[in-house]
From TrEMBL, chain B:
Native source organism of the sequence: Tissierella pigra
Family (UniProt): Belongs to the binding-protein-dependent transport system permease family.
Compartment(s) of residence: Cell membrane
PROSITE patterns listed in its UniProt record: ABC_TM1
Keywords on record: Cell membrane, Membrane, Transmembrane, Transmembrane helix, Transport
Topology versus the membrane: Multi-pass membrane protein
Name the record gives this protein: ABC transporter permease
Length: 314, 309
């Protein structure tokens, strides 16, 4: 009897109401985006791509300031110098420092790519979203119009607009370049958004949410936007290299930015002349950087697509 | 299916008309006058030139005339070349470009799907890595850079490959390779993913368990189905080839339509720009239409679903 434990009443307290809830998820849930990020991180190629992009962005900001030359400063005593300790990437035929010009050019190429993708994104979301929630008839007409616009060959219209809006020999302004690039290129985004909206509008989980009493804005915020965001993000990452490529091609045809401004494409175009006289570095270096940017965005886009694809989830 | 075809053709016609209209009004909205620049020109000469190109008439009338001429296949006179009309230039340049484009397409069609199929069959093994490296290079390196690299490293070292020019088969080799790399890479990637998907399908298992040999399963069951997505993007790839040819022709000095186009841009030869743009658009839209029609015939599933509509 001595062994008996003395259990007094005040050693007990009622279980709080919350703790009795068996439905409660006790572990922190992995959020959608952290899951995507976790899977993206496992894709080595994409991480290389992401690193390249981040480095390029960083260098395009600080690169032109590093070695103290400006992109327009000409020095006729040092023309066509091969890469050396003072001019790391050499100089061009006007004695301008290529290192500074490359990063300055990368800045413009990236600005063009990112701005074009942003504008595509805005127009695409508005047009696609409207088309998705409109009546069938309006939707049909809107999509037919989009199809017609999209069958206009992309680079052809870009070239045409650059010809029209730039006077002879003066190059094209940044505004016109971006306008030309977004004129037809928003369509895939719009079609994508519309498809997603239509699909989600009829999906069972949004019906389920609605029947559980969820309000329309809540469904939009919690279901539709997160679910649409993935494919849109992939599309953006793949639009950027397309715009950069288009700009490079345009510059290469002599329709790029006005000198002394430069983009990677116009630097390559300028370097083409140097190729014949043994100054191959003038085209090879910008070429490498264009390719690196294209590579970075393309593999990042691919990796994102895989990471967002629920079928590939392990 | 007839209804679908009809709809498709109507859409193509509308697109073409839209392109022609946009091109026409864009070219005519350029401020200034194409003849004012040429120094001091006597008033009479100026007026005659205006009359020759129909620029003295009001714009809507010019538009109607231009459309009528286009229907007759007449692209008008060049503003800069005194001897050749736009039609002459297209006739001279297009066969060259078409030859180059077809050769590039041929290279891409042979090697692209083959590389992709190999990569899928040997997933995560050596052939997969090799073909993916080629695909990544093809997608990241723009064709004009590829062209210059090929000139720098191949043409300068291999004696029988010329740096540029046109006339013999050896001249077409490097430009066609440079041009084909992007579509090749694209096809290889597409083929790889569609092949991987199909290799996991149940009917492949069925075919294997029936005791069919590996090669028959791959050739008759897997590749035949995996190649379908490639056909559907063929139109886009052809359009890429066409545009890529502007740049490639410039680098290699090939007298194709792309060269005339680039030249017309640099000379501001408005009628030639308009003519070549519209000609390119016609070619592209017809090709896209043909690819779509071919696709219906190749994939019976589409035929069935489209019939219902």
């Amino acid at each position: 009897m001595d062994n008996q434990i003395n259990l007094s009443k005040d050693m007990f307290r009622p279980v709080p109401h919350e703790d009795r809830n068996p439905e409660k998820i006790r572990r922190p849930s992995i959020k959608y985006w952290s899951d995507v990020w976790r899977r993206l991180r496992q894709n080595k190629l994409s991480m290389v791509g992401l690193t390249i992009i981040l480095l390029m962005i960083l260098m395009s900001i600080i690169g032109p300031l590093i070695n103290g030359y400006s992109y327009f400063e000409q020095d006729y005593s040092k023309i066509n110098l091969h890469p050396n300790a003072i001019h790391w990437f050499g100089t061009d035929e006007l004695g301008r420092d290529q290192f500074t010009r490359i990063w300055f050019g990368a800045r413009y190429s990236l600005i063009i790519g990112i701005l074009a993708a942003t504008i595509d994104f805005i127009i695409g979301i508005l047009y696609g979203g409207l088309s998705g929630i409109a009546t069938r008839k309006v939707d049909n007409i809107m999509m037919r119009i989009a199809e017609v616009i999209y069958s206009i060959p992309y680079l052809l219209i870009v070239i045409l607009l650059s010809v029209v809006f730039s006077s002879e020999g003066s190059g094209t302004s940044l505004f016109v370049l971006i306008l030309a690039m977004t004129l037809t290129d928003w369509v895939p985004m719009a079609i994508l958004v519309r498809g997603q909206v239509l699909q989600l509008k009829e999906s069972e989980y949004s019906l389920a949410a609605e029947s559980l009493g969820a309000t329309k804005p809540w469904i939009l915020r919690k279901h539709i936007i997160p679910n649409t965001l993935g494919p849109i993000l992939v599309n953006i990452t793949l639009t950027i290299p397309r715009a950069i490529f288009a700009e490079a091609t345009l510059s290469f045809l002599g329709l790029g930015l006005q000198a002394p401004k430069s983009s990677l494409g116009s630097l390559a175009n300028d370097g083409l002349a140097g190729l014949a006289v043994g100054n191959g570095y003038q085209i090879i270096i910008p070429a490498i950087f264009i390719s690196l940017i294209m590579f970075g965005f393309n593999v990042l886009g691919d990796g994102l697509r895989d990471a967002l694809d629920p079928r590939l989830r392990k | 299916m007839k209804k679908y075809l009809f709809k498709r053709i109507i859409m193509s016609a509308i697109t073409l008309w839209a392109i022609i209209t946009i091109t026409f009004f864009l070219m005519h909205s350029i401020p200034g006058n194409p003849f004012r620049k040429e120094g001091k020109m006597p008033q009479v000469v100026y007026e005659n030139l205006q009359k020759k190109y129909g620029l003295d008439k009001p714009l809507p009338e010019q538009y109607i005339i231009y459309l009528k001429n286009l229907l007759k296949g007449d692209f008008g006179d060049s503003m800069k070349s005194k001897v050749e009309t736009v039609n002459d230039m297209i006739r001279r340049g297009f066969p060259v470009s078409a030859y180059l484009g077809l050769e590039a397409l041929f290279i891409a069609l042979i090697f692209g799907p083959a590389l992709g199929a190999l990569a899928a069959l040997y997933q995560n093994k050596f052939p997969d890595y090799i073909s993916m490296i080629i695909a990544i290079i093809g997608i990241s390196v723009p064709s004009f850079i590829m062209g210059t690299i090929l000139i720098q490293f191949v043409a300068k070292n291999v004696s029988w490959i010329p740096i540029g020019g046109w006339g013999e088969f050896k001249h077409t080799f490097l430009p066609a390779v440079a041009l084909s790399l992007m579509p090749l890479a694209y096809m290889a990637r597409l083929m790889r993913s569609s092949m991987l998907e199909i290799l996991g399908q149940d009917y492949i298992k069925t075919a294997k368990s029936k005791g069919l040999s590996k090669s028959i399963v791959i050739l008759k069951h897997a590749i035949r189905n995996a190649v379908l997505p490639i056909i559907s993007v063929l139109g886009t790839l052809i359009s890429n080839l066409l545009v890529g040819s502007f740049v490639i022709e410039k680098i290699f000095g090939i007298p194709g339509l792309g060269k005339f186009f680039v030249q017309s841009i640099n000379n501001r030869d408005y009628t030639l720009i308009m003519g070549t743009t519209i000609f390119y658009a016609i070619i592209l839209i017809v090709l896209l239409l043909l690819v779509d029609i071919a696709y219906i015939f190749i994939d019976p599933r589409i035929r069935l679903t489209k019939e219902g509509r």
